[in-house]
User: Fold this.
Amino acid sequence: PGISPTSKLVKLLRGYNIEIRTEIDLALDYLSGEYIAITGTNGKSTLTQVLANILRDDGFIAAGNIGYPACEAVLQDRESNLSLELSSYQIEYMDMKKAPYAAVFLSFATDHLERHGSLEEYFRVKWSLIEATLNNSGHALISEDILQYAIKYGLKHDFAKLTIISDKDMYQNT
Assistant:
């Protein structure tokens, strides 16, 4: 994910229709369990670890952008389930054939504009995870703020399929 999609190398590979595979894709190719994907500008690592801890008895471990590579987790145990933290850099190249069982888009703020070019493009990259999840009959959880951005940017989806939590409920104890 460190290589910009606008780099000469990526453009050349895509020009020849050469598939670009990520570390996440390779891990998911071999994962026989399920995964929950967590993205957002802030709070991803915390939620990823909390979910893994809560779901430990169901074989979930925290991996991905949290600092433990998904490939390493799968090499240790193909049968495990992953609580997978995903950055926009990881999502933008992901092959969504194996969409998550569930996805959470936790928060959104101005970030990574040097990579994505605009706030809207940054949002669209992260939203693609939600779309892929819902298109594969998965479950998706977003905040009201995320819903408002989706509407603002004209991203159409059956919003009735989403679980939307109020920002007030999310942060009432902080």
